[in-house]
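User: Hey, quick favor. My workstation is busy. Could you predict this chain's structure for me?
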Amino acid sequence: MSVFLQQLANALCVGSLYALLAIGYTMVYGVLRLINFAHGEIFMMAMYIVFYGIGLFMLPWYLGFFLTIVITALLGVLSERFAYRPLRNAPRISVLISAIGVSYFLQNLATVVFGGRPLTFPQVALFTDVIDLGGVKMQRLGILVPIIAAALLIALMFLIKKTRTGLAMRAVARSYDASRLMGIDLNRTIAVTFLIGSAMAGVGAIMWGMKYPQISPTVGSMPGIKCFIAAVLGGIGNTTGAVLGGLLLGFVEIMLVAVWPDLSGYRDAFAFVLLIVVLLVKPTGLLGEKATEKV
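Assistant: No problem, here it is.
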């Protein structure tokens, strides 16, 4: 039982990390119907910002974390302004190619500016200290990440359901043309969506770095793929579904490795297998809505 509880705690922590990233991913898709392939690279840039903010400029960790979230959010807005907005009325394939271009641009920019040598993410004792809960040993991060994910989900649901900005987001998600006719500022609403989604990537990067401290220009590739899979599992475009998909993905990965340790090298493959199964059985995801055909 203690071994099971230990693995369950690990699964909850990893799943919550995936959920943090998937929330930002699915927000952008929910409003723009755009698969933002640069989400993982924005995550990567956030890890570098923390490293240099705390290591080079000697900022206190809490100030470094705060500035990282702000800068990452602004980076998302800049990517929307220069890579996506000019293609607002272009075919969807053009926007998709632009998203892939932003991903490669940020990855190569990081290689040129920061170098390809792996770095170590700054560790903060508040998050990394190991605690013992009835025989289950885990980093304090394992408790904080689910709490942070739940708090952010509640805050986002309030924003989407109870505020004018959220109402505008829901209207834009339904129809660009109808929202313009209702007087909604389309550019501002989409920019706010990217702002929030990229800020979530910044939060996820900070938590991820505490658990997996290695930083490199390609560090965002696999987390970016995992958060996409988590968003699809939950029903891409559904914020609650993104959290559920992240938790499910973390649970499947950790538990399968716990049952069959020899398959630990294939841990990432489990995510793709789960994605294929869900797409075959329920293509819209666990909480996704069935798409309706436009006449």
